[in-house]
Write a structure and sequence with these properties.
single chain; Alpha-Beta Plaits; five-stranded antiparallel beta sheet; 34% helix; globular; binds flavin-adenine dinucleotide
């Protein structure tokens, strides 16, 4: 079956490879359990082939053929997803979207139309060159794609001021599992069902996103920072809530462990960026609002290092396992979620360090981002226990399942508890759109 499908895709003129190097390139996502395996020269999985379509029509051809033969398809953007949502455990065809690489700027309407495979760093560079920005800046900016952002409901470092990927989206083009192409006319807003939203956070279950039209913003003239230190999380969170009235573009709270790591300080740290018109007045007002002590330079220090993840490649070869767990909660539950989830992670034998920062803020609440590293006897069972304890503690204390990394295989056992009656709806949608269950089999459901 798979050989026939590959031949058919090839004869339709779509690039597809069965070379070992290409198959290895698409054998995993960025979930941390994969790296120790690769260091032992074990592959987490292997697709039979990797396809490299360059247009929506070519994506459609791949899916038509795969659907006809019932061959599994795993969709890859940058492969930076961390929740084991693209790993091709059932073989089949890995479809790379990286060939969908066009960028068109519409200055008059402040829009950009981009192929799903455009890597964030390239998109931002092109926009900046013309005086614009998307202001969607995940830490993985240089290794994630437009389609991946939509599929994972990604969140950038400036989400507090500009919103998450769903707030930037104007329209989407997607290919359904049977190859049908769905396109909608772009418009600033419309009433009626907003069905493009079914693809946001769908992790490749319902279709392949091939392009997106998104809002863009003029590069801000003013860019001002604020750094404040505190003795505990409570005051910092209360100040963050008050600062939301002053519309910071970016805000973060680092706990004492992370303040030590980033700023060589044992206090808690809040940083904020105010930008655009009226930024200096808002900054001055912010200084009056905060209860902590205003300090110098911490925001700049973090901004300088904000894409640096080189620690991971240093510690994993030494036998450590390292990961992050992000959850959202209302203001009401913030201190409880922070304290209890950290306690749960630290309580697992093998944990060497656990810390947290708050990274995204809303009128109604915030996202906590926990980081842990362990040096356990058995990596897999340690990892399983940390995740189970952290997620269950979050859910019990008012936190949610995921803020922006997504569900994948890692969190799927908790999904029905999280979304309740929407879970059977999602299952029905999947079985209607993907009768042969070819797309990202085993992910989320
Ligand atoms: C160091 C690091 C930092 C990170 N920082 C952030 C952060 O700040 N914010 C954040 O939100 N995330 C972050 N992430 C997670 C990850 O980068 C995001 O989830 C990102 O959106 C994934 O994009 P990608 O192109 O790499 O997608 P992939 O990893 O290739 O895919 C992710 C999922 O989306 C599906 N998919 C990909 N492209 C498409 C498409 N075109 N159509 C349909 N389905 C598709 C895949 O099948 C998979 O299920 C980080 C990851 C790393 C490793």
């Amino acid at each position: 079956m798979i050989e026939k499908a590959v031949e058919e895709i090839k004869s339709a003129g779509v690039e597809i490879s069965t070379n070992m190097e290409d198959r290895i390139a698409y054998c995993k996502d960025y979930n941390p359990l994969h790296l120790p395996k690769l260091l032992k020269k074990e592959f987490p999985a292997l697709p039979h082939a990797a396809a490299f379509p360059k247009t929506t029509e070519e994506v459609s051809k791949v899916l038509q053929v795969a659907n006809a033969y019932g061959v599994p398809v795993y969709v890859f953007g940058g492969g930076s997803g961390v929740i084991d949502a693209a790993t091709p455990y059932e073989g089949g065809i890995a479809v790379s979207t990286l060939g969908l690489d066009f960028v068109e700027i519409d200055e008059e309407n402040m829009l950009v139309r981009a192929g799903a495979g455009v890597v964030g760093g390239r998109l931002e560079k092109i926009l900046n060159h013309r005086g614009f920005t998307l202001r969607h800046s995940p830490q993985s900016l240089y290794c994630s794609t437009v389609g991946g952002w939509v599929a994972t409901a990604a969140s950038g470092q400036f989400s507090t001021g500009y919103g998450n990927i769903e707030n930037l989206l104007i329209s989407l083009t997607a290919v359904l599992p049977d190859g049908e192409v769905v396109v909608e006319r772009a418009t600033p807003r419309r009433a009626g069902p907003d069905l493009k939203r079914i693809f946001v956070g769908s992790e490749g279950l319902l279709g392949v996103v091939t392009e997106a039209v998104m809002k863009i913003f003029p590069l801000p003239e003013e860019f001002l920072t604020l750094s404040v230190e505190y003795e505990g999380i409570g005051d910092a969170v209360r100040d963050a809530k008050a600062l939301m009235q002053l519309k910071p573009a970016l805000m973060r709270i680092f706990d004492d462990e992370e303040s030590l790591r980033y700023f060589d300080s044992e206090s808690f740290t809040l940083i904020a960026v105010f930008e655009g018109k009226g930024a200096s007045a808002r900054l001055e007002e912010a200084k009056k609002v905060v209860s902590g002590e205003v300090v110098d330079g911490r925001a700049e220090k973090w901004l300088e290092k904000r894409f640096d993840v080189s620690d991971i490649s240093r510690i994993v070869p030494l036998g450590f396992i390292f990961d992050t767990i992000e959850v959202a909660c209302f203001w009401r539950d913030a201190e409880k979620v922070y304290t209890e989830v950290l306690k749960a992670i630290r309580g697992v034998e093998g944990t060497v360090t656990a810390s947290a920062h708050a990274s995204h803020f809303y009128e109604s609440g915030l996202c906590f981002y926990f980081t842990f590293a362990g040096l356990p006897a058995d990596i897999e069972s340690y990892y399983e226990e940390v995740w189970r304890k952290a997620v269950e503690t979050s859910l019990r204390n008012g936190g949610n399942l995921t803020h922006h990394h997504g569900v994948g295989r890692l969190r799927k056992r908790w999904l029905s508890a999280e979304i309740g009656g929407y879970y059977p709806l999602l299952r029905d949608l999947k079985s209607i759109l993907d009768r042969r269950n070819i797309l990202n089999r085993g992910v989320m459901l």
